[in-house]
Amino acid sequence: MTSNQQYDAIIIGGGHNGLTCAAYLAKAGKKVLVLERRHLVGGAAVTEEMYPGFKFTVCSYVVSLLRPEIIRELDLPKFGLHILPLDSAFAPMEDGNYLAMYADAATTRDELRRHSRRDADAYPEFSKVMYDMAFGVKNILGMTPPDPANPGLRGLRTLAEFGKHLQGKGKPWFHDFTKIMTMSAVDFLAEWFETDIVQSLFSINGIIGTMLGPRSPGTAYVLLHHYMGELDGAFTSWGWQKGGTGMVSEAIAGAARHFGAEIRCNATVSQVIVKNGEATGVALASGEELYAPIIVSGADPYVTFRKLVDERDLPADLVQAIDKFKFRGSSGKVNLALDGLPDFTAMRDKTLMRGMMEICPSVDYLERAYDDAKYGADGPGYSRRPYMDVLLPTTVDPSMAPPGKHVMSIFVQYASYPIAEPIDRDKHREDFGNAVINTLSEFAPNIKDLILHKQVLTPWDMEQKIGLTEGNIFQGELTLDQLFFLRPAPGWADYKTPIRGYYQCGSGTHPGGGITGGPGRLAAMKILEKGR
Asked: Are 199 and 249 part of one and the same domain?
């Protein structure tokens, strides 16, 4: 069945990057169609009512990396973007003590001083160094990676502009930057702080979305990547989108529709139609065919290159690179509907419930959690006592649950994928969820009595539900060998593919994962270059 409708561009996947790409193309006057296989848009950034009256942010949960130029250029607040700040962090320790971080720097220093005067004194300088590094490299997030082997005039100009941007940073900046690009998070932090809980709390941003431990080289850069979180111009800021992260996707979708894009859900693309090395349309699972001279995949690199097109239409070196691309899903998600607020034994200041609660009592705890997953073939395939990033969205956004009730979002690491067959997936999921709840109950003893409903997602579940290869939330690990001009493969980091008219815009491209919108925007800019 062939549609008579002709489009200028078809976007495969209604994740936030696909929607961003669609919005920019539609804003430029293109006739755009977005095809999403699920019943709602958003991909991994969705809000769903999984239990009557309770709304869960199913996979993602916080907002920080959304590019400010996208918010501005698409006027997202007009379409419902409303981010509430999460301005504290609380990390309980196994001995009953805790560490808290606040929006106010002076209060944070007083809290650090409880643990170490040296750490309290080092904190302001550390914050300044991290800010300077993040500010120095944040321009990378908004540029198309040039190919060093064949940069062309545009690539040389991009590199020259970035080099000019870095001029005047001085030797200390470059020394610190070299360290953070090569060291482990813990080794880098140990040069600043002596207290274990401080190192542990700061290092968690270095392991999120990677199958690496806090002592693994390269995790210091991942820490910096998350340090570039920005809200209203403030670095290292994290927030909660009112209504959940699905409302970020809906805001971008609203902008896309405003500019004229058409969005179809329950529309699974099974194949990109390629003729004589050129993409001409897509075939849906329903048998329908749709045509456009521009086809853009918001899926991950494996789906984009190995499932949607024929291997014979790709050069052998690209096929090999994609087959070697590391996904290694390392995180799971547990969402709870609660009858009331949990009681964290160590929490003295209950206002900390309005922030992020981190179960990372020591560096050794995190490293052992990694070991559990790393040696998954000889164990359960998940951390028996995992790292958890816990959030109670209803403390800042009561609309997520009925009055007096609460939802809890728990990002969990580590959970490995794949797991050797045969395996009882239901039992594995239940055991994983129990490990999370049992560990959490060590720090909040009443949590089991409050649970009305729980949703548990392993990496395998995320692959099945969202279409993320191996359940990696970033569509590929953020390791140094998979960044910038190497993401997803050398020579193909500029959003183009070897197939004419076929582009990529997912998080498997630069600048990577998180709710950034960056890949979608940059892909649209690359496509629109042809019309200039």
From this structure: no
Q: How many CA atoms lie within 13 A of 122 on its CB side?
A: 15
Is 97 a member of any domain?
no
Q: Are residues 218 and 124 in the same domain?
A: yes
Cβ atoms of residues 219 and 203 within 8 Å: yes
Separation between Cα atoms, residue 72 and residue 77, nearest integer Å: 9
Is-contact 412 386, C-beta < 8 A?
A: yes
* Alpha-carbon separation of residue 253 from 248, 261, 340 (angstroms): 9, 9, 34
Exposed (0-12), middle (13-18) or buried (19+): which is 111, by Cβ within 10 Å? middle
Query: In 3D, which of 477, 386, 379 has the Cα closest to residue 420?
Result: 379
Top-confidence residue, 531 or 356 = 356
Q: In whole angstroms, give the CA distance from residue 356 to residue 376.
A: 28
User: Rounded distance, CA 190 to CA 82, Å?
Assistant: 37
Same domain as 513, residue 407: no
The upper half-sphere exposure of residue 514, i.e. CA atoms within 13 Å in the direction of its Cβ, equals 25
- Quote the domain boundaries for residue 295: 2-45+65-83+243-326+476-531
State the DSSP code for 398. G
What span, in angstroms and rounded, lies between the C-alpha atoms of 527 and 23? 13
What does the angle CA 281 – CA 285 – CA 289 come to, to the nearest 5 degrees? 30
User: Rounded to an integer, what distance in angstroms lies between the CA atom of residue 163 and that of residue 138?
Assistant: 13
| Residue 40 burial class via C-beta count within 10 angstroms: exposed 0-12, middle 13-18, buried 19 and up | middle
User: pLDDT by residue (tens digit) across 271-330?
Assistant: 999 999 999 999 999 999 999 999 999 999 999 999 999 999 999 999 999 999 999 999
Report the b/e string of 147-183 with b at 16+ CB within 10 A. Answer: eeeeeeeebeebeeeeeeeeeeeeeeeeebbeebbeb
CA 161/CA 72 separation, integer angstroms: 23
DSSP codes joined into one string, 33-82: EEE-SSSSSBTTS-EEEEETTEEEE-S---B--S-HHHHHHTTGGGGT--
Residue 59 domain flag: no
Structure tokens at 294: 């521009």
Q: How many domains does the chain have?
A: 3
Return the H-helix or E-strand segment holding 450.
helix 447-450
Contact 211, 373 (CB under 8 A): yes
Q: What is the per-residue pLDDT across 102-114, written as a single tens digit (0 to 9) for each?
A: 989 899 999 999 9
Chain position carrying tokens 């944070």: 108
Same domain, yes or no, for 321 and 376? no
Q: How far is CA 446 from the centre of its chain?
A: 31
User: Are 341 and 427 part of one and the same domain?
Assistant: yes
The pTM of this model reads: 0.94
Burial zone of 78 (CB within 10 Å; 0-12 exposed, 13-18 middle, 19+ buried): exposed
Beta bridge pairs of residue 35 = 12, 264
Q: Which two tokens stand for residue 21?
A: 């790409």
